[in-house]
Amino acid sequence: MTLKPMQPSREISRLVEIMAALRDPDNGCPWDLAQDFSTIRHYTIEEAYEVADAIERQDFDDLLDELGDLLLQPVYHAQLAAEEGYFDFNDVIETITTKLVRRHPHVFGDVGAADADAAKQRWDEIKAGERATKNSGLTAPGSLLDDVPFALPALARANKLAKRAAEVGFDWPDAPGALDKVREELGEVKEAMDHKSSQNIEEELGDLLMAVANLARKCGVDPEAALTNANAKFLRRFTYVEKRCREEKTDIATAGLEVLDGYWNEIRGLERVTDKWVPVIG
Description:
By secondary structure, the protein is mainly alpha-helical. It folds into 4 domains: 12-102, Helix Hairpins, CATH 1.10.287.1080; 111-135; 154-221, Orthogonal Bundle (Helix Hairpins), CATH 1.10.287.1080; 224-274, no CATH class. Helix content is 69%, strand content 0%. The protein has 12 helices and no strands. The chain has helices spanning 12-22, 30-33, 37-56, 60-84, 89-102, 105-108, 116-135, 154-166, 175-194, 198-218, 223-247, 257-274. Helix 3 (37-56) runs antiparallel to helix 4 (60-84), helix 9 (175-194) runs antiparallel to helix 10 (198-218) and helix 11 (223-247) crosses helix 12. The protein is globular. The termini are far apart.
């Protein structure tokens, strides 16, 4: 059997059809036929990061392309699930639309929400109720933290674990309290360094990073986003340092920290003056 030619479309149903054709046992793509949930999952994560990168760069042509790549992922997983008889893409759509309606009673029901904070609080309350209902049938009580995904980046997971624990009052009362904990953990890192214990240093650095994630949360900052932005800033400034070394015909590997730090401070000063970064070329 030969599959009929496929044409592009603005309908989601065409994407589902194309995915099914790629997985056709007789005429599908050999690579797609060799995949399963485990081999595809890392692509799902990668595509989400590429969407975030396009947003960070404000490249909306790229964002259009990357959103398509990301959209393919749930369609792919749903196709695999349909083949195993678990569920299909329509079930995915029904599940998310049901959830959105249920968690927005201030839009689709008669419960009010004065502002974004009130709407978010209501969402969190409904999620907590859903978890309680889900766990009620278990023979042994589950943990409040059971459904925090292990696959999250460590900093994002630290934030989510602490946020979940805060729902039952296990939390610092305010940001200054969280800052005091950062200072405490930093002191313990220094103590471990003084004793030259690599195992303790790693453990204490982990505690410090967790405390910083907590502080970010108490300040209303997403720690994963903050670190992503810091990475971008470092890349931007170091690229400038490399450019200055080329301009001065200086070997960056032997220039020394004083020279490199001088170039680094140049770009810091330029950024303060312009409050805008123009990509360095050359």
